[in-house]
Each structure stands twice: as structure tokens, then as C-alpha cells.
Design brief:
about 900 residues; alpha+beta; 7-stranded mixed sheet; 6-stranded mixed β-barrel; 30 helices; 21 strands; elongated
Length: about 900
């Protein structure tokens, strides 16, 4: 305990040094006076008395040093002295400090911003309980399989889709999810208000309940604390709100509402016969992903014994984080590596600056050495100054990172799912501090070690030549040239990678999507399943419930208002349901008729709008990020193995191909006669025609499909291929059916306009409201926006890597300029002699430029090797471009050489303007 107290006393003495030294000096002077007095009384002369007293004390300064060592912390005090001296040196050279700090701020700030993105996507733990044990399963699974598994517990099935949230006179499209009862317990989350689902609420005959997201609760219901226990209307059905989730929870995706599976609207929304489900669960303690994957595979093989094993999809079992960020991991690491290159170039630039600055401090360093400073102390002092520069650069880099983060929140495409929010948290600050320390050490170690080569006698002579020789000019030139070569190599590597991505993206934009994308406006509509009574208006309970006139709540209530569970609205609906029921077949037929009528009326009124040239419906929009359905077909006389495994199925209205300007290659388009009661017909794309009927005309050919209940379908037309899944995807075999024969519950309205598409949105909304208020249009987009959105990830990746490459080129150019400029200044005497002996200005220019180009060519050679490696990493990101594309390598090399020439021009120009007489007279 006494030792600890003594240590704290010594530590406190470091921060009260002046007072401590003053007190000790007074005490020492008092002791000296007492010794002198004793010596005088012993008969000594005053001079001898003082001399003997000083001898007895061991010398004033020596005593002070001993006292400081006992009551202070010498190592800490020397570090503080180095910091103070370093700050004075930086303040004495503001130009050098500003340039070095600015370079480091750009490098460290860019790295901190990229780390914040990496942290949000890959590092930060998911906001769930024990997130490492949560897994995601995508599989075709039999019902009740959860009861047989021994590796997974607390599992839950979920499915996501859009629904209509209905208010007074208006409706809103929101993202909903139907989940099984263990969904929230599997994730380890609880509502911030209310409760989760009860087992009884999973029954189809049970009450309809829902849990809302915090965002929906705040935006739609103004954070009404009395909402729990009240009803909201979804797709025409009343749901009782039982809970509000925390603000950070919105899984899966951006879900705004959760309801127990099966939902009353799930049969129409997700398909009652579908057995492909998303699943989330928890691994039991000690169980690995491989064990769970093997067990689930065995369950599937046992569940479908008659099915060909090769056709049973293998389950995809992964950690929840991996499933959320699938596809983004490699891209983020490539970008993080690129910004790391920028930081290394910044280090090389600052190291070059420090080398130049230390060369001008040779006499100062020599004097310190002559006065007793060790070589290690000099190295420590110079490293301290480098670390100070990096710490100041890191402080400014946080400002740069903050602005980059703000831009990243706006620029990161929707396809990149951020598990966490991009923010400046403790992890980012810790990374920035670590990056600054590493940067300061890397950039300062070579200049600091170079100071050990100083020859003190030559440095103190004072002549310029002697000073250069004392510092080791040849050694210094080699170091600076090596750093310049490294900068060029790193910059060329990044430039080549960015060039490959730019060319790839340009090729991507040149791809023909298969239709004319200009002046196309799209919107989505969802037609949920409802009672045929409500749809047709024949309401035995009284009133008119047609889609055009039905009121959504009691008169006098505001949009978003609710009514108590079991209140008047619920009771009246329950009574009507009990008094009027139809068979399932009759109800399905009535739903089909209502939807067909809606499509026809909506198209007729939309085409009548001024500025609309044509309009059509399609169930799945190209570039709309929707999952296309695939079905196998059968052709008489052709074996299964000779046909594609599946064909993409699309339902369209007759005018779809003319609206989209998709070319008709042979046959005809659909007509209004291709409706109910007519023979089944289809239009196929060019790829399907080539694969199914190679070398023959497919018009009039027959095939069977599950969509036609096994009946024959006749091919009546062949159209051009459309790249539905993106510009970088090859067309799939595709078959189009008439939407009047294959009626859909969700479709996209596509309009070809004569004016700017966005100006027609209000008018189209009004038309949709007049046709059916229960069926709101949502997701208004132009086709160009959809195509642009589909290429958002490669655009973002290309722009970010291009920005890093441009910054690397700028820093490398500055580095080349620094090396050549300093070398030119050191060779000033040589150039003066050459000019005095008759050398022409162009000869001097050639000497300077040759030095810069030689350094650049060596760096470019190393950079090409690095670019080949980076090209291999980017190979899977490139479209129609090889990783070794010679055109890109040549263009980048010429760009680098041009930048090097520009960096050499100013030093060369200064070298040609040397006055021989003045320079030689000075020497």
C-alpha cells in the first residue's frame, strides 16, 4: 500500500513540476546557507565555506536531478517534454503541418468512414439475444418437421408481402409478415408495448391480431398509446392491435406489421398451397451449422421418398447475419482494402515530407547529439512528432468521416442491407485512434531511423555540402525514391481496378433491356381476397359494399381512427358472414370476375387520360425485384431432359407488348377475345422458342403447363427477349399468358406517356380511387428509375472505388512532385555548373523528367502486378470485361504517366531558371 501511495505521489509530482522544483530550490538554498554558516563558524573563509558546502551537497544541479528522479516519473516526464517540443516544432512550420495533417485527415477519415459501414454490416452484433446462435433456413420443408429436429429449437416460419392498410376513404400499402408463434422468442425480442401472439391466435378460426412496428405506429397513428386493443383494417379484415415493437426491430426486411401464421389474407397473398418457407431458429448448445444442415437434409429426403433426390432442393442453412449480408461481404472487403491503399499512400507522402524536413534539421539534431542526446532519444523525438501529426490528422479525419457517413447513408443502394446504423460510435473512435497510431508509426519510422546516420562533426561545420554529406544524401535519395515508387504502384493498382469497374459499368448500361424504357410510368396494385358479397354489392345485411362506394369506417371518423374489438363494425361483419356463405368454387369464380372487371375498367380510364399513349397490366414487372414464378412445360414427343427445367411465367393484358415496345417476331399479340371461355394461348420469347422448338416455327405448336390444369396451350406469338432480372442477366425462357385467362391478385400498371411521367401520378391516383378505393396504387416509378435501381450496387461500387482511385492518383502525383522537387533543389549546384558549361535548358529539363519517369516506370511495373491480382478479385463483379483487359491497362498506364509528367514539370521548370553566377557565387 505504501508503494502504491508513493507511486501516486510521484505521478502527481509530474503535473506540479514547477511548484515542486521551486519548493526544492528554496529548501536546497536553505540547507546550503546552513552548511556555509557551519563552515564559517569552523574558521573557513567565505569562499572556502561555500565551496565545501557545495561539495558536501554534491552540486546544486546534481542534487536537483536526483530529487526529480525520486519524486517524479522520469520516463513520463521525458515523453511530455518530447510532446511539448514536437508541438512547438509543428507550430513553427505551419505550412508543412497543414499539408501533412490534410493528407493524413483524408486517408484516416476515409478509412474511418468505410470502417463504420463495415461495422454496421459485418461486425456489430445483431440486436437480438445470443445472435450467434440464430440461424436462417431457406428450404422446401414438410409440415411438422420442427418436431423431429434435435439440432434446432425455438424455430419459427415467416413470410413477407405487401398488404393494404385501410383508413377512412383511403388506403396505404405497407410491408407485412406472417409469422408462427415462436418468431419473437426465436429472435429474443419483446414488444416495447403490449404482448406477442398466443398459441390460440394461430388458428384460422381464432381472432385476427397484429403487432405494429414503431415507425408505423408513430407515422400512421401519431404514437397513440390507446391503440393497443383497438382494431385496424387490413385488406378488408379487422385486426386487433396487441403490441408495438421497439424502434430497432423491423425483421424481416423493413416489415411494418406482423400477424400470426396463417393470416386471414395469407391464402391470397402468399398462396395457400405453397410449401417453401423462410425459417429462423436457434441452434441448441454445442450444435454447429453443419450438423443442422445434415439433419435437415436427412429430414427432407425422408419426407419425399418418391421424389427424385436430385430434384429435391438442398436446404440453405446459415447464420442469420450471413443470410442478411449475403453477397455484400466480398464487395465491402474489396472497398475497405482499396481505402487502405489510400492510407498507405498518405503514409508514404507524409514520410517523404518528414524526410525533407529532417534534412533541413541536420544541424539541430547534431547539436542535440553533441549535448548528450542519445540516438534513441532522437528517434523517439522524431517519432513523437510524427504521431502528433497523425493524431491531429485523425481529429480532422473524424470530421471528414462524419461527412462521408452522411453521404453514405444517402448513396448506399437499397440492396445493401445494413444490419446496424452507420454511426460514429466507440468502435469507430477506437479504430480511428488505432489507425492514427499505426499511420504515425509507419510514416515516421523511416525518417526517424534516418536521423541515426547523421555525422556530427560534418554537420557542425556549417557548409551546405558538408551538411548533405553528414545526413547521407545518397541514402536519403534512395528512401525518397523508394517511397515514390511505392505510391505509384499502389495508385496504379487502384486506378486499374477502378478502370475495370468503370468499363464494366459502361458495358452494362449499353445493354438493351428488350424494350424502350423512356416515358414509361409504373405503379403496383393489390387486389386482396374479399367476400363476393362485398365485391359485387349484393349485401344481404344492407348497404352498398362495392369497391367504388364502400366506406371504410363509421361516418365522422378521421383517417386512421379505430374502433373497439368486437364493436359495431366487427359485429355487423360477423353477422353478415354467418347469414351469407358461398361455396369455395363460387367465391373463387366471383373473385376472378371482380378482378378481371377491375383490370378492364382501370385500363379504359387510364388510356383516356391526357398524356397517356397506352397502358397495360403485368403481374411481375421487369426490374421490379419481384420473384418470377417458374413452371416446367411438357411437349408431346419431346423427352423431359431435352426441355428447359422451367419457364418463367408472366401474365399480361393484350396491349402490354405495344406499351413496352417489345418487338413481335412472329405470330400475333393477345386480343380481348383471349379471355375466359376461349382456348388457352400463350406468347413465348425468343429464348424459349430457340430452346423448345429449335430450327422450326413455334407458331401453332402446343404444350401443356400446370397453369392450364394440364390442358393444351397453343403458341400464338413470339416476342423479343426481355432481361427481367437485370441488365447483367441473360434472358430466361419465358411464356406470357393473358391476364384475363390467368387472373392475378397483384399486378403492375404500365403506362406509356407523352410527357414527363411524374406529372401524371396525381391523375392516375385519382383514376384508381374512382375505380376502387380498396385497391390503392403504390410504388410509382418510371422504368428508367427501376433500371437504374437494378444497377445501383455496381454503380455505388464503381463510384466509391473510382473516388478512392482518384484520391490515390492525387496523392501519388503529390508524392512524385515532392521527390522530384526535393531532388532538384539538392542538385541546384549541379544544374548551375551544367548551364555555365553550355548545357541547354531542354537538357536540364530532360534530366529532371527522366528521373521522374524512371521512378514512375518502376512503380508502374510493380503496380501492374498488383492490378492483375486485384483484377482476379474483381472478376465476379465485372460484366463483359476481362480482368486483364489490355485497353484498360494501357489507358491507366498513360494516365499515370501523364500525371507523373505533370508532377515533374514544375521542378524541371525551376531547374532551368537557375542563375549560374548566383548559385556558384553562393557555393
Amino acid at each position: 500500500m505504501s508503494r502504491l501511495r508513493a507511486y501516486f505521489v510521484r505521478l502527481a509530482g509530474v503535473f506540479s513540476k514547477q511548484r515542486r522544483d521551486r519548493d526544492f530550490a528554496e529548501e536546497l538554498e536553505s540547507n546550503l546557507s546552513m552548511h556555509i554558516e557551519d563552515n564559517l563558524q569552523a574558521g573557513m573563509t567565505p569562499e572556502e565555506a561555500r565551496r565545501q558546502a557545495l561539495i558536501k551537497l554534491g552540486g546544486i544541479e546534481h542534487a536537483k536531478e536526483q530529487y526529480r528522479d525520486r519524486l517524479g516519473v522520469p520516463g513520463l516526464e521525458s515523453v511530455i517534454q518530447d510532446l511539448r517540443y514536437g508541438l512547438r516544432q509543428l507550430r513553427r512550420n505551419p505550412g508543412f503541418t497543414a499539408i501533412a495533417v490534410g493528407i493524413l485527415a483524408l486517408g484516416i477519415g476515409a478509412n474511418a468512414a468505410m470502417f463504420s459501414v463495415l461495422d454496421a454490416v459485418l461486425i456489430r452484433p445483431l440486436p437480438y439475444k445470443d445472435p450467434d446462435r440464430i440461424i436462417s433456413i431457406d428450404a422446401t420443408v414438410p409440415q411438422g418437421w420442427e418436431k423431429t429436429t434435435k439440432t434446432i429449437k425455438s424455430g419459427s416460419t415467416y413470410e413477407q408481402g405487401p398488404v393494404n392498410l385501410i383508413g377512412t376513404g383511403w388506403a396505404e400499402r405497407i410491408s407485412a409478415a406472417e409469422v408462427s408463434k415462436n418468431f419473437f422468442s426465436a429472435l429474443g425480442v419483446q414488444p416495447s408495448e403490449g404482448r406477442t401472439f398466443l398459441p390460440s391466435e394461430e388458428n384460422r378460426s381464432g381472432p385476427s391480431v397484429a403487432i405494429l412496428s414503431d415507425a408505423l405506429w408513430r407515422s400512421r397513428y401519431s404514437s397513440d398509446p390507446r391503440l393497443i386493443g383497438k382494431n385496424i383494417e387490413i385488406n378488408g379484415t379487422l385486426f386487433t392491435v396487441i403490441g408495438i415493437m421497439p424502434p430497432s426491430f423491423h425483421f424481416p426486411g423493413k416489415t411494418q406489421l406482423w400477424a400470426p401464421m396463417p393470416l386471414n389474407f395469407s391464402q391470397e397473398l402468399f398462396g395457400g398451397n405453397a410449401f417453401f418457407w423462410n425459417y429462423v431458429g436457434r441452434l441448441r448448445p454445442g450444435i454447429t451449422l453443419d450438423q443442422a444442415r445434415a439433419e435437415l437434409t436427412a429430414i427432407l429426403l425422408k419426407a419425399y421418398p418418391k421424389m427424385d433426390r436430385s430434384r429435391i432442393p438442398r436446404p440453405i442453412v446459415a447464420s442469420l447475419r450471413s443470410s442478411l449480408v449475403f453477397g455484400e461481404r466480398s464487395q465491402l472487403f474489396v472497398l475497405f482494402g482499396a481505402v487502405g491503399f489510400v492510407l498507405l499512400i498518405s503514409c508514404a507522402d507524409v514520410a517523404n515530407l518528414l524526410l525533407s524536413r529532417n534534412a533541413g534539421r541536420v544541424r539541430e539534431l547534431a547539436v542535440r547529439t553533441a549535448l548528450g542526446s542519445s540516438r534513441g532519444r532522437l528517434v523517439r523525438q522524431l517519432l513523437t512528432e510524427s504521431l502528433l501529426l497523425s493524431l491531429i490528422g485523425a481529429a480532422l479525419g473524424l470530421v471528414v468521416a462524419w461527412w462521408v457517413m452522411l453521404a453514405a447513408r444517402l448513396l448506399i443502394p437499397a440492396g445493401v442491407l445494413l444490419v446496424g446504423e452507420i454511426r460514429m460510435d466507440g468502435w469507430v473512435l477506437a479504430f480511428t485512434l488505432l489507425a492514427s497510431l499505426l499511420t504515425g508509426t509507419i510514416s515516421g519510422i523511416l525518417p526517424a531511423l534516418s536521423s541515426r546516420r547523421i555525422a556530427v562533426p560534418e554537420s557542425l561545420k556549417g557548409a551546405e555540402g558538408d551538411t548533405q554529406a553528414a545526413f547521407g544524401l545518397g541514402h536519403l535519395r534512395i528512401l525518397r525514391t523508394t517511397l515514390g515508387v511505392a505510391e505509384v504502384a499502389l495508385a496504379l493498382t487502384l486506378l486499374t481496378g477502378a478502370g475495370l469497374l468503370v468499363k464494366s459499368f459502361a458495358r452494362l448500361l449499353e445493354v438493351n433491356p428488350g424494350f424502350r424504357s423512356g416515358h414509361l410510368l409504373t405503379a403496383r396494385v393489390f387486389l386482396p381476397a374479399r367476400s363476393p358479397v362485398a365485391q359485387t354489392g349484393a349485401n344481404p345485411c344492407g348497404g352498398n359494399n362495392t369497391p367504388d362506394s364502400r366506406k371504410f369506417s363509421q361516418p365522422g371518423k378521421e383517417p386512421g381512427s379505430t374502433e373497439p374489438a368486437g364493436g359495431t363494425g366487427a359485429a355487423s361483419r360477423a353477422g353478415c358472414s354467418s347469414q351469407h356463405t358461398l361455396s369455395a368454387a363460387a367465391q373463387q369464380e366471383d373473385e376472378t370476375t371482380v378482378r378481371r372487371t377491375y383490370f378492364q375498367q382501370m385500363l379504359a380510364r387510364t388510356k383516356a387520360l391526357p398524356g397517356v399513349r397506352d397502358a397495360a397490366f403485368i403481374n411481375i414487372l421487369p426490374f421490379g425485384n419481384a420473384a418470377f414464378a417458374g413452371f416446367p412445360i411438357r411437349i408431346a414427343g419431346k423427352p423431359k431432359r431435352s426441355l428447359p427445367p422451367f419457364e418463367v411465367y408472366v401474365a399480361v393484358s393484350p396491349d402490354y407488348f405495344r406499351t413496352m415496345d417489345i418487338p413481335l417476331l412472329s405470330g400475333r399479340f393477345f386480343t380481348d377475345a383471349d379471355g375466359p371461355g376461349a382456348s388457352n394461348v400463350a406468347i413465348i420469347n425468343q429464348t424459349m422458342a430457340r430452346l423448345c422448338w429449335p430450327g422450326t416455327n413455334p407458331i401453332g405448336k402446343l404444350f401443356t403447363s400446370p397453369l392450364a390444369n394440364g390442358k393444351s396451350v397453343q403458341v400464338v406469338g413470339v416476342v423479343g427477349d426481355v432481361r427481367d432480372f437485370g441488365l447483367d442477366s441473360e434472358p430466361f425462357p419465358e411464356m406470357y399468358f393473358s391476364i384475363y385467362q390467368q387472373v392475378q391478385d397483384a399486378a403492375y400498371l404500365v403506362m406509356r406517356t407523352a410527357q414527363r411521367p411524374a406529372t401524371l401520378v396525381p391523375a392516375v391516383r385519382a383514376v384508381a380511387s374512382s375505380v376502387g378505393q380498396l385497391y390503392p396504387l403504390s410504388s410509382f416509378d418510371t422504368m428508367k428509375e427501376l433500371i437504374s435501381r437494378s444497377s445501383a450496387q455496381p454503380r455505388f461500387r464503381t463510384a466509391l472505388l473510382g473516388m478512392f482511385a482518384a484520391l490515390a492518383l492525387l496523392l501519388a502525383t503529390a508524392g512524385i512532385y515532392g521527390v522530384i522537387s526535393y531532388s532538384t533543389a539538392q542538385r541546384r549546384h549541379e544544374f548551375a555548373v551544367r548551364i555555365a558549361l553550355g548545357a541547354q535548358r531542354r537538357d536540364v529539363t530532360r534530366l529532371v523528367v527522366r528521373q521522374g519517369l524512371c521512378m514512375t516506370l518502376v512503380g508502374m511495373g510493380l503496380g501492374i502486378l498488383g492490378a492483375l491480382g486485384l483484377g482476379r478479385l474483381l472478376a465476379h463483379e465485372l460484366f463483359a470485361v476481362k480482368p486483364t483487359d489490355p485497353e484498360t491497362f494501357v489507358v491507366v498506364a498513360l494516365l499515370m504517366a501523364g500525371a507523373a509528367l505533370l508532377a515533374c514539370y514544375l521542378p524541371a521548370r525551376r531547374a532551368t531558371q537557375v542563375d549560374p553566377i548566383g548559385a556558384l557565387k553562393y557555393e
